[in-house]
Amino acid sequence: MRALVRDEGRARRRLGVLADSLTLQVGDLTKPASLRGACDGVDSVIHAAIANMHTFAAGRGDDARFLAVNAEGSVALARELLRAGGGRFVHTSSTASMGTPDGEVASEATPCKPLTPYQVSKRRAEEALLELHERDGLDVVIVRPCLVAGPGKDGGELLSLFKMCRRGLVPIFGGKTQMRKPLIDVRDLVSALLLARTRGRSGEIYLVHSDGDHTLGEILEVCGRLVGTTRPALRIPMPVARLASAATTPLARLVGISPPLSPERLALYLTSRHIDISKARSELGYEPAHQDLYDLLGSTYLHYVRTGQL
To answer: Per-residue pLDDT tens for 129-146?
Structure first.
């Protein structure tokens, strides 16, 4: 296997003994010339790199950075694969590319409505890669996971969730806790990506998650038990939430920071996400092995504790 890294020394420190079994190729997605040769001699690429910022970031420069890495960088790597002679390009996208879709059930056929800079960048990457498929014959398969849990995670929304649960500060807007909030274990995501590499139909998109049908209330209950609190949440009346969103968002964006509660974030919170993964099951043979919330969240929590993040 070959790994594309920006800094070989840092990569070796992070990978440990695993680095000895890899060929490390130094390159930067935002600098296409640095990718020259990265795909020579490979039969497939699993692309999982993104701009490492919050999903709802909307400060100064966020639009440009998200697009440069998530959209343009993905296309640059795909073009390098085509230049090298081709092979399968498995693109790790996100349900974020769909925005907040209409309807009770979302599938690969559901129209995408991305709003935030991150969401837009992920959707633009999908569109550009599918265009390369149609125009230049790129053999691409797109996998859309939801929020990823499991061991090995650094930072992210789940770390913030555990920290807020510990303080009893997870906001519950309007008392609503029955919305479905799908998760996927990182081990199941790896399985889906490998299946897409060998079984996916070129030019297709596949949605994947744990199929645990978890609600926000269930997630908060498990998080509360893991961090040792019986009151992980703070209830906020809906009118107060809408007022806070309307009042703080323009000011936050004016000064170049991410708003604490943007209208997009509030809308996503209130959305019950029932995502159909039958296409991945039938065409990839995907079957999630990690559905229990204590497994999904517990392994994440233990990793955070063991690595000193909590």
So the answer is: 999 999 999 999 999 999
Q: Which residues contact 244 (CB under 8 A, 6 or more apart)?
A: 261
- Domain span including residue 81: 31-306
Residue 183 β-bridge partners: 147
- 278-305: pLDDT as tens digits: 999 999 999 999 999 999 999 999 999 9
Residue at 25 is within a domain: no
The first and second tokens of residue 9, run together, are 């020394």
| Residue 53, domain member (yes or no) | yes
Q: Return the number of other C-beta atoms located less than 10 Å from residue 216's C-beta.
A: 18
Is the distance from CB of 209 to CB of 149 less than 8 angstroms?
no
Of 224, 195, 181, give the one whose Cα is nearest residue 289: 195
Calculate mean pLDDT across residues 21-32: 94
Confidence (pTM)? 0.88
Q: Which residues pair with 139 in a beta bridge?
A: 88
CA-to-CA separations, 64 to 27, 48, 195, in angstroms, rounded: 20, 19, 33
CA distance readout (Å), 41 to 62, 83, 124, 129: 35, 11, 28, 21
The beta-strand segments (E) located in the chain are 2-5, 23-26, 44-47, 88-92, 105-106, 139-145, 147-149, 170-173, 183-185, 204-208, 233-236, 274-275
Residue 21 lies in a domain: no
List C-alpha distances in Å: 242 to 58, 235, 307: 18, 14, 37
Q: How many domains does the chain have?
A: 1
List Cα–Cα distances, 256 to 61, 63, 249, in angstroms. Answer: 8, 12, 11
Interatomic CA distance for residues 146 and 129, integer angstroms = 20
7 within a domain of the structure (yes/no): no
Residue 253's CB is within 10 A of a number of other CB atoms, namely 16
> What confidence tens digit (pLDDT) does each residue in 28-40 have?
999 999 999 999 9
